[in-house]
Amino acid sequence: MDDKSFPASPITRVPLALALSGLAGCADAIGFLQFSQLFMSFMSGNTTRFGVAVAGADWEGVTRITSVIAIFCFGAFAGTLIAAWSGRWRLPVLLGLQAAFLSVGLIMPQGPYAFPIHAYPVVFALGMQNATLQDEDGRSLALTYVTGAVVRFGTGLANLLLHKPAKSFWIQAPLWGALSAGAVTGGVLHAHFGENAFLFPAILAAALAVGVTLLTLARPGSPLIAGTAPAPDAPKDARPVYVVREPLRS
Prior knowledge:
Layout: H1 10-34, H2 43-55, H3 59-86, H4 90-104, H5 120-129, H6 147-162, H7 169-193, H8 199-218
Helix pairs in contact: 1-7, 1-8, 2-3, 3-4, 3-5, 4-5, 4-8, 6-7
């Protein structure tokens, strides 16, 4: 099929994408303020900080930032495998795990400066989040960072003039807005609750997990919670992870 989005229906895919992008912005802002300007999901920013740390021979900082980038990458790796193995339970499983890991950091040991152990579960959850949804081309939706969204919006505007934009063009600006709004919310929550503010994105992820679980039980195979897409960012000839069997009801 030409449309490789997940879920197949934009009725659920778009609201989930905006909610999760807002969640990521919230968690990233809380982490940035809580962990001395360490990004939870913005690995471009952490990479720049890594370069500055190397240039300044700040080896403790290098270790700190490198470990976070590695954990985020492992989260994306694990999330993609879980997405492929979970079938029609992909959304409940991934969102449930994200809620759990966002909460676990609050009870983890602090760890030394070079190894911020209590930040790792949050970083892992946000890396995993990027395997939750896919756009019409089968690409993982960029839910935890906006560089890709801004670029795709800009190129989409150009293609709008030249011919027509990609199908996913229209969601890019709302994704930016959702992540920005989440970051503002995270900053306000951290000012009032400190590290405990991480409970807010955790509760949001848990609420979304409950919602998609109920929908999965009520409408098994529905395009609202399933799709014919292969795993995120898989090659075009990859087999679908799950086949939609129920037509979308009006």
